[in-house]
From TrEMBL:
GO cellular-component term (any): external side of plasma membrane
GO process annotations (BP): animal organ development; cell adhesion mediated by integrin; cell-matrix adhesion; heterophilic cell-cell adhesion via plasma membrane cell adhesion molecules; integrin-mediated signaling pathway
GO molecular function: integrin binding
Region (Disordered): 1097-1119
The family this protein is said to belong to: Belongs to the integrin alpha chain family.
Protein name (record): Integrin alpha-PS1 isoform X1
PROSITE patterns given in the database record: FG_GAP
Organism in which the protein naturally occurs: Dinoponera quadriceps (South American ant)
Basic and acidic residues bias (residue ranges): 1102-1119
FG-GAP repeat windows: 35-101, 196-253, 316-375, 379-436, 440-502
UniProtKB keywords: Cell adhesion, Glycoprotein, Integrin, Membrane, Receptor, Repeat, Signal, Transmembrane, Transmembrane helix
Domain named Integrin alpha first immunoglubulin-like: residues: 507-661
TM spans (from-to): 1062-1083
Length: 1119
């Protein structure tokens, strides 16, 4: 039976605090020295450094073991003939040369009888064998690209070494299987054994069995002479692990091959890659247990722990640890170390693909697996979580460093190869487990020559240079290089601060500072409050020191952690400068290893914070020459010349406190009570709300009463959080309370320092509401008080809420520029019209929008329905009011009008004209409509077949009948589109005027309405408040308006007269006949018809004529 444990980490320490803590140390804070590394380089492109291992060979003739850096180069060229980039293992000495590594012979050896060297056929061989004595691979294997060196491990000083090729291929007549293999070497790197876990196992079903084992992807040599080999490929990449003995005690050793349960008994599913990483340790306190990572198991990744029982091949699953995040590859790398010193091995698990917004990669440290084995709910099962920077692959490599700083706890190194060019983090163990803050962060750039992917592989725990401290070997495969960072010796240091009393003795606690008193015993004449202390250090080297030590002594007040930008104090110095830090040099010798230095500190004037302690950080560091990277061939620099102080003791934080009216415990427990109200009337709609009618209230006043019924409150402040639309004006109070604008939404008031017990303060804070946005329907104020004293109990802030009433009475009126227009003349087709003046007379509709108030309107819309065509049943009818330009808005604010899609101004692109005939017939005002007469002989053309608006007859007040045609949008007698006009910032008592200019299409009226007395053409407009503008109106009746133009037929171009009735003709004829008869009778009576006839001859006729015509002459002749 096994238990699943899910990661539930407590809240991590803030990343900022982490880096601030790092700033306590100098660049090379702890004892791994990156400035003089041992650098080795391999062939370019060989992946030299893909895996590394520290190793020491014990030679009888030398007093100290010989240290070797073992390096895997999986794409290197092996010395075995007939191979191509099959990989190689290299051994490198500790020298200043960079290319003096030699390849370890692993493949192609011959026995003494000339046969190919095989496992279980071991005989002694000549260690000086040359490459020409090696033979090519046999016909049953392929070693090209086998990746020999993918895994390199050492058992430690005098122990065995393993090197694996997880892509080694076994070849048969019809198939090739990538099963992998591992060489086991003796402590002097001679062949010892060859482990092929999948050799001879069934491959009939290829990857579903053991066709692609990839044995050797990971490995570990245990202290009891066994080798654990990770094999992630069997059974469709479920994976497994194999445990073999490598003991030299052939007769007594246990030759059982142990493995994890497989197939249906496997603790993981297919494609889990169990065996990608392995580790061994006494995790449960009952002997060695075996851990294997499965980074793709369960989506998140898992780590499975196994327990082995003698002679039972199947190991038992004891515990399963589950990853925290999907695809984080939890279990990609694992290692073990006792970080808390409890003699039980702790498990460290990496999830290098873990991520969030600012983090990349995570490492989990389990220190109580024995508890987790019993119950998963115990809080001790929760791991400590360490995280790296984004995209850094933090956790790609892990290693146990051993006890790096000699404090009794093992330490850990974590690689982040993609943070910059590469970074390695050093974490120290402690009694309470891993310390979350790294003791040292080593960047590739800290080396004399940066190495790319620095930290991809790690190996530690062995004192390679014999100075008493373990060192760290780091691989950087992309640069085909490795670097050995040696540990510096640690000089122990302890620091303390003491305070001189009046009697000359010393005490560990400083007397509280009285901020109201100037001077101090050391400087009684000072005009500033001051105090003094002595900073002391005592050093005692772990390795006996014979020379003098020069230390840099540095004290910084308050700003060291980054929490404060300015300090409240300065140090006394010989000069006139006032610095909040002091820097001195201290010399210690072997006769006197203790040093104390007195410092006098002064409090700055007008310091407000007289309640929180003044914190100091004391730090000592060694003064020494900078190490210099030696040239190749020179002696390796002696690391003993560059010791370092134990930084866990070299830095100390202490503090000075103020006198406070806070009782015997010196802890001020205040009790601030806040009451608040607004100078507004209560809402009639919402309970507990106030009501603000904008435009009638010039300002809002928040009235606050603050009382302290507890102990003195230091740096007491009142905060009023308000809407960003409100503007702070001023404040007044019954005491010396000072209020200031803290930011755009907070007003802060200093109410006392200290704000003493039983004291009250009344404060009135004024705000201007004119900047409120129209979409704000309510206001909120949050009022609270706090101080640097401790509150007796947490209190909820006082919250005031007000409903914002924004009332603006809007109205709109419509009119035409003049009321009447005339039409007449011939009918002209649309295609024949080229100029605007040929369309017809000008028409202007005017809409006046007025804001009665009391509040402004930031945005409003006026939608005008414009009758551009006569209503008809066709897509495009006859023009009515032809728009010649975009409507305009006249207002103190801004405004604009837009047409709907598909409609434009002057769609026929008619040209403007300055013709005198195009005089605006509406410029002359008229007081009465014209009198209509229908007398013309105008000849009508045939009426179009389009729909024509019906005529209706109306009777005026004088009883006259008129035929009228009305065309507008509401009645559906005209086709319309909506003009949308936006008016911005219409203030109280202001108006905006919208003017729409158009042409009356003359031909439409002449053709369709020649016999009517008038044509009424109207547009409609309405006011629309946008949804995001909250404005109240009581009267909505005046939000609509009509503008109307009346068109009359032209008086000079009327239609033909009506025909004369028949009876009039008859009467006229009769009257004419009667007049003729009467005239005849009168002439007859006068003798008109009795005159003489003339002679036939001219003379006679003339004579007769003369007589008849001149009777007077006749009488004259007689006489």
């Amino acid at each position: 039976m096994y238990i699943h444990i899910y990661i539930r980490t407590a809240t991590m320490v803030n990343a900022l605090c982490l880096w601030l803590a790092l700033s306590v140390c100098v660049t090379h804070a702890f004892n791994l020295e990156p400035r003089i590394p041992v650098i080795k380089r391999g062939l370019k492109g060989s992946y030299f450094g893909y895996s590394v291992a520290e190793h020491q060979e014990i030679k009888p003739q030398t007093p100290k073991p010989t240290s070797w850096m073992l390096v895997g180069a999986p794409l290197g060229q092996n010395q075995q003939p007939g191979t191509n980039r099959s990989g190689a293992l290299w051994q490198c000495p500790l020298t200043t040369y960079t290319e003096d590594c030699t390849q370890v012979i692993t493949d192609g050896r011959l026995k003494g009888d000339g046969l190919l060297f095989r496992p279980y056929e071991y005989e002694l061989y000549d260690s000086n064998i040359e490459s020409e004595d090696l033979v090519p691979p046999g016909p049953d294997e392929i070693k090209d690209n086998q990746w020999l060196g993918v895994t390199v491990r050492s058992q430690g000083m005098g122990g065995k070494v393993m090197v694996c090729a997880h892509r080694h291929i076994v070849k048969t007549l019809d198939s090739r299987w990538g099963q992998g293999q591992c060489y086991i070497l003796t402590q002097d790197l001679k062949y010892n054994d060859l482990k092929k876990p999948c050799s001879g196992k069934p491959t009939n079903k290829a990857h579903e069995q053991f066709g692609y084992c990839q044995a050797g992807t990971s490995g570990f040599l245990t202290v009891d002479d066994r080798v654990l080999i990770g094999t992630p490929g069997p059974h469709t990449w479920r994976g497994t692990v194999y445990l073999f003995t490598v003991s030299d005690e052939f007769l007594t050793r246990d030759n059982t091959v142990y493995s994890a349960p497989m197939q249906d008994l496997s603790p993981v599913n297919k494609y889990s890659y169990l065996g990608m990483s392995v580790a061994v340790g006494n995790f449960f306190g009952k002997g060695l247990a075996y851990a294997a990572g499965a980074p793709r198991s369960n989506g998140t990744g898992q780590v499975v722990l196994f327990t082995r029982y003698d002679y039972k091949p199947d190991m038992e699953v004891t515990l399963v640890l589950d990853g925290e995040q999907f695809a984080s590859s939890y279990g990609y790398e694992i290692t073990s170390a006792d970080v808390n010193g409890d003699k039980l091995t702790d498990l460290i698990v990496a999830a290098p693909f873990y991520f969030n917004k600012v983090e990349g990669g995570a490492v989990y440290v389990y220190t109580a697996l024995d508890v987790c084995r019993i119950t998963k709910d115990d809080e001790r099962c929760l791991p400590v979580k360490l995280v790296g920077r984004e995209e850094s692959r933090f956790g790609f490599a892990l290693t146990n460093l051993g006890d790096l700083n000699k404090d009794g706890y093992e330490d850990v190194a974590i690689g982040a190869p993609y943070e910059g060019k590469g970074t390695v983090y050093i974490y120290l163990g402690s009694k309470n487990g891993i310390i979350k803050t790294p003791s040292q962060v080593i960047h590739a750039e800290d080396l004399p020559s940066p190495l790319k992917t620095f930290g991809y592989s790690l190996s530690g725990g062995i004192d390679m240079d014999h100075n008493g401290y373990s060192d760290l070997l780091i691989g950087a495969y992309e640069d085909d290089a490795i670097a050995l960072l040696r540990s510096k010796k640690i000089i122990d240091i302890s620091t303390y601060v003491r305070y001189e009393k009046k009697d000359g003795t010393y005490q560990d606690k400083m007397e509280p500072i009285d901020p109201n008193k100037v001077g101090c015993p050391v400087d009684p004449d000072s005009n500033y409050t001051c105090f003094s202390f002595e900073a002391c250090c005592k050093t005692e080297s772990l390795v006996k020191e014979e020379s003098n030590l020069k230390l840099n002594y540095y004290i910084e007040a308050e700003t060291y952690a980054g929490a404060k930008k300015f300090s409240r104090v300065w140090f006394a110095t010989d000069g006139s400068s006032r610095h909040h830090y002091i820097n001195r040099t201290v010399t210690l010798d072997t006769t006197k290893l203790t040093h104390c230095q007195r410092e006098v500190v002064y409090l700055k004037e007008n310091t407000r914070d007289i309640q929180s302690p003044i914190k100091f950080r004391l730090n000592y560091s060694l003064i020494q020459e900078e190490p210099v990277m030696p040239p190749q061939g020179a002696a390796l620099p002696d690391i003993k010349n560059y010791p370092i102080l134990n930084q866990q003791e070299a830095a100390r934080v202490f503090e000075a406190v103020f006198q406070k009216d806070c009782g015997n415990d010196d802890i001020c427990e205040s009790d601030l009570q806040v009451k608040a109200k607004l100078n507004l009337s209560a809402s009639s709609v919402k309970p507990d709300f106030y009501e603000l009618l904008l435009g009638e209230r010039e300002e809002i006043v928040v009235e606050v009463n603050v009382a302290n019924i507890g102990e003195s409150a230091y740096e007491a402040q009142l905060f009023i959080v308000h809407s960003q639309s409100l503007s702070y004006i001023a404040s007044k109070s019954n005491d010396s309370v000072i209020c200031n604008l803290y930011n755009a939404t907070v007003v802060s008031c200093s109410i006392g320092n200290p704000f003493q017990k039983n004291k009250t303060a009344d404060i009135q804070v004024r705000f201007d509401p004119k900047g409120l946005e129209d979409n704000e329907s309510q206001l909120g104020f949050t009022i609270f008080a706090n101080s640097t004293s401790r509150e007796v109990k947490d209190k909820r802030p006082a919250v005031l809420q007000a409903t914002v009433l924004k009332r603006a009475e809007l109205s709109i009126k419509g009119s035409a520029k003049t009321q009447w227009a005339f039409y007449g003349g011939p009918v002209v087709g649309e295609s024949a019209i080229k100029h605007l003046n040929e369309v017809g007379p000008k028409v202007s509709h005017i809409y006046e929008v007025f804001n009665e108030g009391p509040w402004k309107v930031s945005t409003l819309e006026v939608r005008i329905s414009w009758p551009y065509e006569v209503a008809n049943d066709k897509a495009h009818g006859k023009w009515l009011l032809y728009m010649e330009e975009l409507p305009t808005i006249q207002a103190l604010g801004d405004g604009e009008c837009t047409l709907p899609p598909g409609h434009i101004v002057n769609p026929l692109k008619l040209q403007d004209s300055d013709n005198f005939d195009d005089v605006d017939n509406m410029l002359q005002p008229s007081t009465s409509p014209p009198i209509l007469y229908n007398h013309t002989n105008h000849v009508r053309t045939t009426r179009d077949t389009e729909k024509v608006v019906n005529t209706r007859t109306i009777v005026d007040k004088d009883g006259h009948r008129h035929r009228v045609v009305a065309m507008n949008c509401k009645a559906g007698t005209a086709k319309c589109f909506d003009i949308t006009c936006y008016i911005y910032n219409l203030q109280r008592k202001q108006e905006a005027v919208i003017t729409v200019k158009a042409r009356l299409w003359n031909s439409t009226l002449v053709e369709d309405y020649p016999k009517v007395d008038m044509v009424k053409i109207g547009s409609n407009a309405k006011i629309v408040i946008p949804p995001n503008v909250i404005i109240q109106q009581e009267n909505l009746k005046d939000d609509h308006a009509i503008a109307e133009t009346i068109a009359y037929p032209d008086l000079l171009d009327q239609q033909e007269a009506e025909p004369v009735p028949v009876w009039v003709i008859i009467v006229a004829v009769v009257a004419g006949l009667l007049l003729f008869i009467l005239l005849t009778l009168v002439l007859r009576k006068l003798g008109f018809f009795k005159r003489r006839r003339p002679d036939p001859t001219l003379s006679g006729n003339l004579e007769k004529h003369n007589r008849d015509d001149n009777p007077e002459n006749e009488s004259l002749f007689k006489h």
